[in-house]
Amino acid sequence: MKSHFHLLQIDLHLQDYKFALLCFVTAFVVTMLSIPLIIKLSRKYDLYDMPNERKEHVLPVPTMGGIAVVAGMLAALGLWLPFHYDTPQVCFFFSVAVLLSLGIMDDLRDLSARYKFFIQAALATLMAISGIRITSFEGLFGIYELPLAAQYTFTLLTIAGVTNAFNLIDGIDGLAGGIGFMSLTTLGIFLTMNGDIISALIAFSLAGAVVAFLYFNFNPAKIFLGDTGSLVLGFSIAVLCIRLMQVNTLTSLPHSPLFVLSLVFIPVFDTIRVFAKRIWKGKSPFQADKTHIHHLLTNAGFSHVFATRLICGLHGFILLEVYWLKELRIELILLILIAFMIVVTTVLKNIRVFVKKTSTGFSQSFIEN
Asked: Binning pLDDT at 50, 70 and 90, where does residue 363 land?
């Protein structure tokens, strides 16, 4: 059975997604059943994410929702994944276990950002050694095949950077999960189209678990993902992005490096922007503040629900934009992406002034009448 998606101009053979659907549903069910138990245990042992001056919530909220997400993903893969003891798979699941442990420790003790980044970099290096590497830029800036040293360097920066970016954007209800679900579903579809069923099943399993988590995480959140989940989410997406670049055929994605960048563009762009701003002001790039893209909206008085919907909407637009513009030069598409995000962040940074002027003008008009 074949289905044609006119919006993307692609044909999907639905029978190829049978096990993907089984993984998705299994992960969804296991996570849905696990989260109430984790919430109960969190309340029993006072495992809360406590509010402070740099966080958006005002009441203690149970954390470590990532445990349920990982449990759902692993349960689905345990049932439906044709596991082979090849090096990349072993290294991936080992890395997930390490990041889960790291996240639990951070949620309990609030580890330093430098320590977490060091662990992320070490695991990224392990994945590169296992064979999950960025081997080519496919013509971006005239660069094709990369030397081995460059492959390791860009792979390390990509995996550690994306993992950290998803950790940092997990600041309001539903945002990291919403972006993650959209990216994972897209990855699963294109990995299946390129014949990498194992990687696709990982993507769909994690996507199903994230959807179940979002049911409890939408505002007002009953539980947070925590570093326990955001680290695993970002790491998995980064690894799957690199894997898609490796297995991609030009007929599927003409500019795969740029397409996978679009899957993580908002978290990565926002992290680079915030880090650059902190360094420019003479501060540590790891010093927490309230200048991320979601803070620009919440600081202006918009709700978590609106901010999450808007940013996820922008994420979806970017995915479609990159795919629609695939016939253009890759450098031009990248320039359009950067310009788009600069405009968006500039507007959001000044939206508080606009809202204030609008509300003041409305109030003044109301009084005069």
From this structure: very low
